[in-house]
Design goal:
By secondary structure, this protein is an alpha+beta fold. It contains 3 helices and 6 strands.
Length: 95
């Protein structure tokens, strides 16, 4: 759960991120883990540059993608994705 909606996020500096036309990949050399991302996940990763908070990421997704779900459901999905990335130590929090 992300309590401070004003904190921003950045990809862990050890990660290698590669964006593709249909998504992207995150490679973690510390664990040799490879994470495949769909277009939305890859887009979120491009916004994890230390300058975008949860609200900004959510708004940018609404502007960029057609949303087939209720906006609140999409916001919850974004928060779940970021929380999962934090738990895997693929993201770091920034104040």
């Amino acid at each position: 759960m992300i309590k401070d909606t004003e904190e921003s996020f950045t990809l862990h500096p050890d990660l290698v991120f590669r964006e593709e036309d249909d998504g992207g990949f995150l490679f973690n050399p510390r664990t040799n883990g490879l994470h495949c991302l769909n277009k939305v996940g890859a887009f979120i990763c491009t916004l994890c540059d230390g300058r975008h908070d949860l609200n900004t990421i959510y708004q940018r997704l609404l502007e960029t993608f057609e949303v087939n779900t209720e906006p609140q459901e999409m916001r919850k999905d974004v928060e779940t994705f970021l929380t999962r990335m934090l738990s895997l130590k693929l993201l770091e929090r920034r104040k």
